[in-house]
Design goal:
The protein has 292 residues and is of the alpha+beta class. The chain is built from ten helices and nine strands. It is globular. The N and C termini lie far apart (111 Å).
């Protein structure tokens, strides 16, 4: 029955198609008699091209809008980039801007990792510092340095990580010198942390190491058998303290490698103690390796 119904369906389609063909022919004849101007005939094509042009323009604008652009370099004196360490120059620029725009007072307030007594003399020659930092920096083992004809500017890795670098500045052609003021400031900061009165709330060991690392190089007694620093192996050498006397912190001995600093503290029981801190110079400057 499916085969017999099929021809009837085809015949109906055929009959319906005849008037449609005639109508198309008639429309064609009318167009030929009246005439369609060539510019109107071309308009559909022009519309397509115009739409395509707009589509291309929109795509181009969209591509341009989504293309990332590098962040602008902040205004201020130039600071040379450091190959392989873009964060170094970025962290030094705020310091340079503060030094030139605000002066010693501004950087003293922000550079709490540096002994405040050393800041005026270390940062006094602004022109020499600007000349040094304008050159490309060099990424070394422990620090990044910018070298100028007069001064060399050195920044520790912890300073770079903080986003605001307070550099060590010393004459070009020499090595940085860590003196008694640096040793005293290291012990001040260490005791301030334990007593709950840090020089800054960000001054924590993870960010700014003050304890020497665990390398087997500690030999303060000159035994010839170096070990890891005792403070690393026994971090609870110093008990909890409630306060200390900053005026009592002073250097009592130096032998070129190790520096001894004494300080008066008040422990958790309220008892007074005079403790001896033994320091050495590490990658971040002075570090504490033992407390007696």
């Amino acid at each position: 029955m499916k085969n017999r119904a099929a021809p009837a369906r085809r015949s109906r389609v055929g009959r319906t198609a005849l008037p449609l063909i005639a109508t198309i022919a008639l429309v064609g004849a009318c167009d030929s008699a009246v005439g369609i101007p060539s510019d109107q005939a071309a308009s559909p094509s022009n519309t397509v091209e115009s739409t395509a042009d707009r589509s291309t323009t929109q795509e181009s604008a969209s591509t341009t809008a989504t293309t990332p652009t590098p962040p602008p370099i902040p205004p201020g004196p130039p600071v040379g980039e450091v190959p392989g360490n873009p964060d170094a120059a970025m962290a030094l620029r705020p310091f340079v801007n503060d030094l030139t725009g605000g002066g010693i007072g501004v950087v003293t307030a922000r550079c709490w990792t540096v002994p405040p007594t050393e800041i005026p003399s270390m940062y006094v020659d602004t022109a020499a510092i600007l000349s040094a930092v304008a050159a490309p920096g060099v990424d070394g083992q422990y620090a990044v340095t910018w070298t100028g004809p007069i001064a060399t500017v050195s920044v520790k890795r912890s300073e770079i990580a903080s986003g605001y670098s307070c550099p060590t500045v010393y004459p070009t052609g020499t090595a940085p010198v860590f003196d008694a003021a640096d040793a005293v400031h290291t012990v001040d900061r260490y005791l301030g942390r334990i007593a709950g009165i840090p020089v800054n709330r960000d001054d924590v060991e993870d960010n700014y190491p003050l304890v020497c690392d665990a390398r087997q190089t500690w030999d303060a007694l000159g035994t010839g058998a170096p070990t890891a620093p005792p403070l690393v192996e026994t971090p609870e050498i110093l008990p909890s303290i409630t306060s200390f006397d900053p005026d009592s912190v002073f250097v009592t001995a130096q032998n070129g490698i190790y520096t001894q600093v004494n300080a008066d503290i008040i422990d958790a029981s309220g008892a007074y103690q005079n403790r001896t801190f033994v320091l050495a110079v590490g990658g971040e400057g002075y570090c504490i390796g033992d407390i007696a």
